């Protein structure tokens, strides 16, 4: 057993005793009741289980939770799909996903949402040229598997959010 402390969606959790072999996915779903994080392949292949990890240096990235132990997240700050809406208001990305009917069964949606959010935050710090946008989105979402084949809808939804706030996400005069 190991004592686990971490921050999820801005709230501190722990210390809580967990078995060393407990997966992060089971910790979120079974210990905390955060069932928005899904379990798909269980083999770090589909990324339906990905959460956002916020590093102290200000960078963020997504990380699968199915093959990672809960204790490997000790001391980390993460965000899950439950943290996107603020004060009952869906995020711009969540609204765009709905507007595009980007999801069907929804199993992969949290992973795509987290990845899209990481991309938005990265572009806000380092905007890209308009001509590079399609490739940038495709590369960011690459690796997320949607068994309902909603790839184009997800791509379009992310693109809409970026173009709706192009001064923020795109390099000027490009
Ligand atoms: S369930 Fe974790 S990558 Fe597929
Ligand atoms: S919406 Fe069903 S797996 Fe993506």
TrEMBL record:
Q: Which InterPro entries match?
A: 2Fe-2S-bd, 2Fe-2S-bd_dom_sf, 2Fe-2S_ferredoxin-like_sf, 2Fe-2S_ferredoxin-type, Aldehyde_Oxdr_Iron-Sulfur, Beta-grasp_dom_sf
All copies of the 2Fe-2S ferredoxin-type domain together span 2-84
Q: Name one Pfam family in it.
A: Fer2
GO molecular function (one):
oxidoreductase activity, acting on the aldehyde or oxo group of donors
Task: Please name the PANTHER family in this protein's record.
Answer: OXIDOREDUCTASE WITH IRON-SULFUR SUBUNIT (PTHR45331:SF2), OXIDOREDUCTASE, IRON-SULPHUR BINDING SUBUNIT-RELATED-RELATED (PTHR45331)
The identity of this protein, by name, is (2Fe-2S)-binding protein
């Amino acid at each position: 057993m190991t004592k686990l402390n971490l921050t999820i969606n801005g709230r501190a959790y722990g210390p809580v005793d967990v078995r060393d072999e407990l997966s992060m996915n089971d910790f979120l779903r079974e210990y905390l009741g955060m069932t928005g994080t899904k379990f798909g392949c269980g083999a770090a292949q589909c990324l339906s289980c990905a959460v956002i990890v916020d590093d102290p240096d200000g960078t963020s990235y997504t990380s699968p939770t199915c093959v990672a132990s809960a204790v490997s997240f000790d001391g980390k700050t993460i965000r899950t799909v439950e943290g996107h809406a603020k004060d009952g208001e869906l995020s711009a990305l969540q609204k765009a996903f709905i507007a595009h009917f980007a999801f069907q069964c929804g199993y992969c949606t949290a992973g795509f949402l987290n990845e899209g959010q990481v991309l938005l935050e990265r572009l806000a710090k380092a905007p890209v040229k308009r001509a590079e946008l399609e490739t940038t989105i495709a590369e960011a979402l690459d690796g997320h598997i949607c068994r309902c084949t909603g790839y184009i809808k997800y791509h379009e939804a992310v693109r809409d959010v970026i173009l709706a706030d192009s001064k923020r996400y795109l390099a000027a005069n490009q």
